[in-house]
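The records we work with from here on pair a chain with its fold. A complete example follows; check for yourself that the lines match position by position.
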Amino acid sequence: MRNLRLIGGLSEINPSLRTLNVLENMKALPKVKEEIEYVKQQTSSSKVLLNEKFTGQALGQQLSSFNFPIVHLTTHAQFSSEAKRTMFFTWDKAINALEFYSLLKFSARSNEDGIELLVLSACQTAKGNKRSALGIAGVAAQAGARSTVATLWKVDADSTALLMEQFYKNLKNGVPKAEALRQAQLNLISDSRYSHPYFWAGFILVGGWL
């Protein structure tokens, strides 16, 4: 897998969380900087957008200007059966499902190879909609992303950082995406702190498994 990556994340409370239709009581995500560093360490070339640099405009510019086979976003998100309430958050704005589709579709047209893997980490999902992650992954697939890793529920920050570290190590070693995720989950299961399914079973891979 080509090694260039776009990594975006929010570790601080930001203006976009004042957006209408946002779930209440969202707090700063812990372990974001550590997770981003883990991901960055597994690549020889990456572009990092963190906190105030992770704006909607900056994300759009990067996706339209460069060919990133892997896009990793560590940020709050909420998913719902309603498109206007399905969104993830950059520093200055929430990007809903239709806007995200447009961004990815434009990126696919601009870059011949397209996005091989989109990872949505540390997601906040809508209560009572356990299949909602499939919605945003479906949007990504329709827009041209070959594979998407997302979550079915609000995941633990510490275990997620460890899972992502192992997942990207596996990818770097040439392990196919589905197997890389499975091995990362098994790694958590072997840790007595995170053996409960809550910590590892919420991660899904939608799209191509290789």
About this structure: The chain has one domain: 4-207.
